[in-house]
Amino acid sequence: MRKRMNCYGCLIAIFLTLTLFLTGCWDRVEIEERGFVVGAGIDLAEDEEAEKGQYRLTFQFVIPGGLQAKEGGGKGAKDAAYFNLSSSANTMFTAARDMSFLTSRSPYLQHLRMILISEELAEKGELANSLDLFLRDHEMRRATKIMVTEGEARQLLDTNPKNEKLPVMYFESTALNPTKSSRIYPPTTVGDVQAFILSKSSFALPRIRKTDGEVSVSGAALFDGTQQLKGFLNDDETSGLNVLRGTAQDGVLEFPLDDRFMAYEIKGLRRTIHADVSNPEHIRFRIRLDVEGNVGESQERIDLLNPSQLAEIEKKTAERLTRLTSRTLSKVQQEYGVDVIGLGEYLNRRHHAIWEGIKEDWEQGERFFTRCDIVVEVRTKVRIVGATVETS
């Protein structure tokens, strides 16, 4: 009798175990029922929309049929590949759920590629609050990129790109061009921003704006450790920031040489930092920048194989970089007081004990960052001069 009871017990255990596997797909949603969201824009709600809540969330949905190539080509053969929906609420979660009432397919965020934050919302210090949904959602990818828009984010999502079917894909492709232009701040992801928020560090985000129907991704938005937008850097200042951070591995510097102009193409940059921490309240930094590049273009008649001529080009290039970085340093250190260069990060790695004693007063409190001395040394080298000896 006892053996029979043990046998029954084993059968019941096996049955219960099998039921766990049978319930594995209870919440499955068929792919045809999903509304794939590739882009999101967040604005502050205005006018009658504000009656529903403080935020206006816009999703860009993909229309799969519109992504397929049509026979015959031509403008008339191009079907819509996306549509945008907006909803207002006091929380992003409610706004996203309300989208389900506006479309036959519920929003699905696993393929979200970009989040656009309006300048107005960032100025109100609402960046962290508006991103909370995306940081918590289990469908979200940590590699989703974030940019700050000049004007409304919803208007950017209505852009009609000439060479892409989806506006978000156009923005993303343009944002990946820091390898060709030092004026574009490198892409920043949701995972990056969460790390900045948790560490209470200052950071920068790429800026995107629409001018005369065209979209430009250049410049940078600067945030302090409280996620408050402090200001913006223009194209040249952003280029200087990328150089100071050592991320400008490519780009073009244009400067006058005698009566004409020359273009120097950056093809490599190495940054070295040294710090004198003998006085923790007045640290002295020396940033050395070793830059290599090519002569991209010269409008002046010069002998590019003449060592003295090459030395003159290298000198002019170094002077141009020094002016560029000086303007950026003045802006981020004195005007905005945000360490987006990464000097605090360097102190944490190389002088940890010193950093532990001053980190609370680095940007806040005593604001030691604004007091420190920063000297930039630039060394440039011409690697390739081109095929001609003289230019005319």
**Average pLDDT for all residues:** 85
Spans where pLDDT lies below 50 across 5 or more residues? none
Shape type: globular
Percent strand equals 25-35%
Supply Rg.
27 Å
Number of strands: 13
Count of helical segments? Answer: 11
Distance between the terminal alpha carbons, to the nearest Å?
A: 107 Å
Largest sheet at a glance? 9 strands, mixed
Helical fraction equals 25-40%
Structural class: alpha/beta
Supply the number of structural domains: 2
What is the H/E order?
A: HEEEHEEHHEHHHEEEHEEEHHHE
List the helices and strands and how they pair.
Layout: H1 2-22, E1 34-44, E2 55-62, E3 82-89, H2 92-98, E4 106-108, E5 114-118, H3 119-123, H4 127-136, E6 145-149, H5 153-157, H6 167-175, H7 190-199, E7 203-211, E8 214-223, E9 229-233, H8 235-245, E10 251-257, E11 260-276, E12 284-298, H9 307-335, H10 343-350, H11 352-358, E13 373-384
Parallel strand pairs: 1-4, 1-5, 5-6, 6-7, 12-13
Antiparallel strand pairs: 1-2, 2-3, 7-8, 8-9, 10-11, 11-12
